[in-house]
Design a protein that fits this description.
The protein is of the alpha/beta class. Helices cover 24% and strands 24% of the residues. The chain has helices spanning 12-23, 27-30, 71-81, 98-105, 139-144, 161-170, 210-213; strands at residues 2-8, 33-39, 58-63, 86-89, 94-95, 114-122, 127-128, 135-138, 172-183, 229-231. It has a single domain (2-223), classed as Spore Coat Polysaccharide Biosynthesis Protein SpsA, Chain A (Alpha-Beta Complex). The strands form two sheets. A six-stranded mixed beta sheet has the order 8-4-1-2-3-10. A four-stranded mixed beta sheet has the order 5-9-6-7.
């Protein structure tokens, strides 16, 4: 069993694209999958409003506060609620198409103590470097690495960097070159990624925060899930 773990913030059209793809997976693939979607406090377009039957369980959780750049918290909540076992942890603008879902679920047994990166292409087929924040990873390994540091909530650009560094210290990395994610930009789907707050060079850029710039792994993040949340479906 593999759990797809996604974070959502006002990404209704992009989530619809996932649901459409998931519904088209082969029955034997659906039997090996479930999904956890974390709505990171969307004030206008909640994820649960788009939910429909795709043939395997999709659990939606909602963070009650609308926290700026709370990627770390949303990922932590998703990996708290995912069942034990292997997860595909990725961003909502990265889609696992049906052919690659079949390859993923039919892969030889994954090796405990390792995490895996997948190949990646743009939606038009152009090559793209593997996404450094997308993993096939065991839930237990995610938490052995400490999860994501929610000190970075409110800031863009480095919330997952300490997690990657901590993960590399305790686990091996392997590639899945024959399984790829498809990356969608906002020219493909207008809400494929977060639009509300600035990124590099903006007032939300973590590089403007000297305390965060000084945080270097290894260290263990503390106090995950610093917000109120609820099951939404």
């Amino acid at each position: 069993m593999i759990t797809i773990v996604l974070s959502y913030y006002e990404n209704g059209l992009m989530l619809e694209r996932h649901l459409e793809e998931w519904a088209g997976y082969a029955p034997e693939v659906k039997a090996e999958l479930r999904a956890v979607v974390v709505d990171d406090g969307s004030p206008r377009d909640p994820a649960v409003a788009h939910l429909r039957n795709v043939g395997f369980p999709v659990d939606v959780y909602r963070i009650r506060q609308n926290l700026i750049w709370n990627v770390a918290g949303a990922r932590n909540l998703g990996m708290t609620q995912a069942p034990d076992g292997w997860c595909l942890l990725t961003d909502i603008d990265h889609l696992l198409k049906a052919d690659y879902a079949a390859k993923l679920t039919a892969s030889p047994p994954f090796i405990s103590g390792y995490y895996y990166h997948l190949a990646r292409r743009w939606s038009d087929g152009r090559y793209l470097e593997p996404h450094r924040n997308s993993y096939v990873i065991e839930r237990a390994l995610y938490w052995r690495a400490g999860g994501c540091d929610e000190d970075f909530t409110g800031w863009w650009g480095a919330g997952e960097g300490p997690f990657r560094a901590n993960l590399k210290r305790i686990a091996g990395r392997l590639e899945l070159p024959d399984i790829q994610l498809t990356h969608f930009g906002r020219n493909d789907i207008c809400d494929a990624s977060t639009r509300e707050w600035g990124r590099k060079g903006s007032p939300y850029d973590y590089a403007r925060n000297p305390l965060l710039r000084r945080k270097k792994a290894p260290y263990r993040p503390e106090n995950p899930l610093r917000f109120d949340w609820e099951r939404a479906n």
